[in-house]
Every structure is written in structure tokens, then in C-alpha cells.
Amino acid sequence: MIKRNVFLLILAIFILSLSGCKKAGEERTDTGLVLGFSQIGSESAWRIGNTKDIEEQAEAYGIGLMLENANQKQDNQIAAIRRFIAYRVDVIAFSPVVEEGWDNVLKEAKEAGIPIILVDRDINAGEQDLTTCLIGADFYKEGVMAAEYLIRKADALGLEQVRIAEITGTENSTPMRQRHAGFMDTIEKDPRMQVLESIDGDFLKSRGAECMRYFLDKYGDEIDVVFSHNDEMTIGAIPEIEKAGLAPGKDMLIISIDGGQEAINVLKEGKINCVVECTPKLGKALMETAIRLKNNESVEKIIHPEEQVFSDETDVSLIAPRGY
Ligand code: GZL
Q: What is the pTM of this model?
């Protein structure tokens, strides 16, 4: 009897400790489903839009959402997943900040019988079957679309050489690895294309500015193209180009990924040439998948949203408000 009381006391303390997360509330909402979600952080307009969409869709679907923000730290995500397991949520979802280091905590979730949904990014779990599905963009295709735009633009401008400065996203993250791979695989057959250097901007605006200062100091006006893995870093880089007396979008082509409103506004100003869309609106697919799992229904292994390219090849004034 004492053991049970100690357990209940520990459980009560644990539940009270969940002050950092948005509680499902004591009452289960009308689906009777509680979803634990570990979000990477708030590093970009994309991430903030993704969080907002997930919260709105949980409300719309009547799902109790416990959302924790990991502030870019994998340890915080692992701790959050352990709390969700202890709280015995029905489904756990998370956007892994990097691809490695998840085996142990996901095995604990599997042993607890709680299904895991990957949102936005993937993990490298080898042959182990630790997650039920991935809901997120086809990052490789985004890299391909960025490169295909560049090849078309080089043809249109009659460029004989195309020297590229690449500002990558968070090292070892799925979007960084796959956007780089898709881009490189597409340009490698084109003898005009040369990547001067690739450096890690960690998807952050401040790091994007730092990377651009480094590139300008080292290569100056040799740079023909900046390929940036997300809008935040692109927005950080553009003022540095202007401080160097160069016109972004004209003296050097600017290619970005995400498609948030701020980048689209800069595209409309002519300072960015191409923005590949990476939609953050994954909430609807997440809620529908969580409900299917709770009902023991099968789900697709990978769910990719449709995505498009916004560029100076079309009338950018027609681009509708982006919502993030
Ligand atoms: C892509 C997402 C990336 C965005 C960045 O789906 O993982 O993380 O491109 C965000 O803006 O930081």
C-alpha cells in the first residue's frame, strides 16, 4: 500500500512539473486523445508557423495537446518524450533537431506501447522500426527545385560560370542533409556550376549574416549565387551584401527555401530571385494520423505535402499572403 502511495505522490509531482508544456487539461477533449509534441524551438518564422498550425489543428480536431519547446536542444526533446511516456499520452510526435541519438528514448516509448510520429524532420534509426510514420517535406526535392531554377536562370542570363556560396541549415539535420544532396546531385552534371564553399548557418538569421560576411571577406564579388537553406539565414545575409556595395538579386542571385511572408516580400522587392516553398502547415495531417493510430488504423509511412517554387520567372505580385 505504501508503494502505491509513493508512486501516486511521484506521479502527482511529475504532473505538476509539466509547467513548461501546454497541458491537455484534466478533462480529455472530445476525441479522448492526448498528443504529446516536442517542438525543436522558435528559430524561424517557419518553426513559429509550424507550432501555430499544430496548436490550431489540435483545437479544430478536439485533441488534447501537450506541446513542449526544446529551444534547439536534443536533451530537452528526449526529456519531454520521457515526460509524455510517464504521463501515458496516447500518441507522441516530435520534430527531431538532428537525425542521430534517439534510439534509447524511442525504445522506451515502444515498450510503453505509445506510437511515435515524426513531424517535419527524420531520424537515422538504422534498421530499427521505432517510429510509425514521417509527416514532412521532401527536402531532397526542394534542393533539386532550387538547382533546377539556377540552371534555368544561368541559361537565361547566358552565364558561362556560376560560382555558388552555400549557407546550410543545422548540421546533421534532415533538411540540411537532403537539401544539400538534392542541390548538388542536380548541378554536378553542369560544368558551369562550382560551389565555392558550404558553411553551417544553423537556420538562424544571425548566423546567416555571419556566414555572408565570411563569404564576402573571402570571395568578394567572385560570388555569383547565394544558396541559403532557409529564409531566416537569407534575410540575415541580404543586408551584409548591400553593406559590401553589391545588389542582392542582381549582382548575385539569391536562392532561399521556406516561403515565409518576409522572404516573399523581399522576393517582390527583387532582392531574392527564388524561394522554394517548404510548408509548415503539417498540423492537419498530424491530427488525422494521430486519430488513425488511436483507432488502430493503418497509416502511410511517409506523408509529403505538395510544394511549389516562387521566383522571378513569374509575376510575383500575384503571390497570395503566406500565413507564416
Ligand atoms: C524544414 C524545417 C526547417 C526550416 C527552417 O522543414 O525543418 O527548420 O526550413 C527551420 O526554417 O528552422
A: 0.87
User: Is the C-beta atom of 121 inside 6 A of ligand 1?
Assistant: yes
Grid cell listed for 253: 542571385
Which has the closest alpha carbon to 224: 189, 193, 262?
193
Domain ranges of the chain: 2-137+280-306, 139-278
> Is 194 or 14 the better-scoring residue by pLDDT?
194
| Alpha carbons 122 and 183: distance in angstroms, whole number | 19
Mean pLDDT of the chain: 92
Return the best residue to mutate from 145, 258, 282, 286 for the ligand 1 pocket (most ligand atoms within 8 A of CB). 258
User: Which of 38, 39, 42, 44 is the best mutation target for the ligand 1 pocket, counting ligand atoms within 8 Å of the beta carbon and taking the most?
Assistant: 44
Range scoring the smallest mean pLDDT among 1-10, 238-247, 286-295: 1-10
C-alpha cell at 72: 534547439
2-137+280-306 sits in which CATH class? alpha beta
7: left (phi over 0), alpha (psi -120 to 50) or beta: alpha
Q: Is any atom of ligand 1 closer than 6 Å to the C-beta of 137?
A: yes
The domain made up of 139-278 is a member of CATH 3.40.50.2300: yes
Backbone torsion region of residue 242, taken as left when φ is above 0, otherwise alpha when ψ lies between -120 and 50, otherwise beta: alpha
